[in-house]
Design a protein that fits this description.
Blueprint (H helix, E strand, L loop, with lengths): L1 E5 L5 E5 L2 H25 L4 H4 L4 H9 L24 H9 L8 E10 L4 E11 L4 E11 L2 E12 L1
Antiparallel strand pairs: 1-2, 3-4, 4-5, 5-6
Helix pairs in contact: 1-4
């Protein structure tokens, strides 16, 4: 598959890539769009717990560890996605991330403590889109035990 990557600085590049590389490329491009959203929550007015190991950067990284999970294996994700051919969480995330091409879009990633003694956290990764025509928010939430995602805790969330 040949994909043309267009950056905000006006440069573009045609690259050949697999479906996985396309997902990663779209994710990186969209995170570039919303990096100021994530950076702002990581450094400004945030409690130390939120800016450390369980902050937005790792919440985002952990969300992408689910890329290979089949949508059909997660009840809340079954038939979810932006395209009928979506099969995995990676497809689900890539579809919504690729629609985030406005300044009003944002990504929100966070983890909240559930049990500090067990280092158990509930994390969420949201993609929020808004323009003149529509508004939606889709994402996933999941638990972290120690610093490892709990695959059985994955849920697809959102509406729009």
């Amino acid at each position: 598959m040949i994909v043309r990557i267009q950056r905000f600085d006006g440069r573009s590049k045609a690259v050949g890539c697999s479906r996985f590389r396309l997902i990663v490329a779209l994710t990186i491009a969209c995170l570039g769009i919303c990096s100021s959203c994530i950076a702002a929550t990581e450094h400004i007015g945030v409690e130390p717990e939120e800016s450390g190991v369980y902050g937005p950067r790792n919440a985002t990284r952990w969300a992408f560890t689910f890329f290979d999970v089949k949508l059909s294996q997660v009840p809340s994700c079954n038939a979810a996605g932006s395209h009928p051919d979506d099969q995995t969480i990676g497809d689900y995330l890539a579809g919504f991330l690729s629609s985030m091409d406005r300044d009003t879009n944002r990504i929100e990633a966070s983890c909240q403590v559930i049990d500090p003694l067990k280092a158990l956290y509930q994390c969420a990764f949201w993609m929020k889109h808004q323009d003149e025509e529509d508004e939606w928010a889709w994402g996933i939430d999941f638990m972290i035990a120690g610093e490892k995602p709990v695959r059985s805790s994955l849920r697809c969330v959102g509406s729009g």
